[in-house]
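Researcher: Re-running this chain for the archive, since the previous output was lost when a drive failed. Same request as before.
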Amino acid sequence: MKKIAILDSTLRDGSQGEGISYSVQDKINIVKALDELGVAYIEAGNPGSNPKDMEFFEEAKKLDLKNSKLVAFGSTRRKDASCAEDANLQSLLSAETEYVVIFGKSWDFQVTDILHATLDENLEMIRDTVAYLSKRGRRVIYDAEHFFSGYDANSEYAMKTLQAAVEGGAETLCLCETKGGCMISRCNEVTGEVVKKFGKVCSIGIHTHNDSGLAVANSLVAVEAGATHVQGVLLGFGERTGNANLSTIIADLQLKMGYSCIPEENIKNLTPICKRVSEITNIALAPGMPYVGANAFAHKAGMHIDAVIKNPAAYEHITPDSVGNERVFLMSEVAGRSLILEKIQKFDRTITKNSPIVAAIVKKVKDMEHAGYQFEGADGSFELLVRKEIGKYRPFFKLHYYKTHDEYPLVEKNLYAFAQLRIDVDGHLQTAAGEGNGPVNALDAALRSALMPFYPEVKQIRLTDYKVRVLDGKGATAACVRVLIESSDGIDTWTTIGVSCDVVEASWMALVDSFEYKLIKDVERKFMKFL
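Model: Regenerated structure tokens:
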């Protein structure tokens, strides 16, 4: 298999995305994750740009990376300074990375109107900078900024900038499609021209942006044209509309196109590592993301589900586990009996497709979804529904009452809601109160307080997401709402649902399901361990 060198720029280009800010420890953790995945290069920032990056590169010297090379990033020298006088270049050297990425201008417009330099001055800046670093033991990847725009405006000059980098000793010429506006055929054509001219003396790379929605496609066609080095961001985020999504590119190249991007055995870790990076970055992994998203192998239509149960190849282009993901059947009124049956048989293998209970549960689901429930996003509540219908459920507590009230102005910062409740736990009446940041938070606190003496494991439950959806906008503030609560205990993640014209009641329904789902799973785990 032909090798493609992957350079991940999550910590440099990716950090330019809106709302993204990494601590030094965040950056260290992401480097470890990317090294575990096995990308060739990790572009970790510009040591001359800010104190945080300088601190990171000092800490990074202590890392023992198994698969990846850490890369420092910087620009060519300033037009009015020598390399020795350029603080940016001295910072690059102090980072002590074997590889450095240097970017320079390829577009004559950028040279004259942005840098206010002459075209010849720019060529000297590129040549001098690459040579200066090369002579000091650095292996240079040259990023030709705005290359495709520059090539369209003045192809002869754009090629001269690459030639200057080669003369300075660059090992890789990376063509940057900086504005994200290049069409696929043009990207393929221009990359091919560069490969013909320089492909025998150095490797050719591609760096694309997604402003036209073509970052992945342009990266793939550049590889087809001869590029052997691909830059991007693991999850595709970055400035404006983002960078090339490496999770998609790696899977496409390695599973579909016959190239090797990361060690073969590591491709199955793609989804878990993407999830880890998204958690460190504090962003939600887009469910619709190819290969690694929660919906990448999700099926909802009844006919589709029935076919996939019989043979997954009917609607799946690869097996989910090949990238560390999993198949999901979304529960809904269109899911059909096949999915209902599969869920039921987890609890009772004797039930068949024609059993009356299957029809009863299908009808129950359709009636509840008509009332506003949506089980495709509430796996926990759906499992509880099935358990109740087939007699595999016992309540862990029974509610007598709850009360909530808010106060304004605040009695104490972030504590402006109060809740009281009484529940019956195995014949024991428990009364508890809670206060919090809103009535749902207060109810959560009160319920935990009441259950802790009997089920201390509820302390492990963490509510990770809370969503409210108005079901009928015509009702204004009297409209029914659907509440989804996502919970985790550090091992599993589950989602529960409640529907009511009272948002607190809908939240209570979802909250109760969340706690009961956790307690049922713990009982079953203990039972299986005992067996």
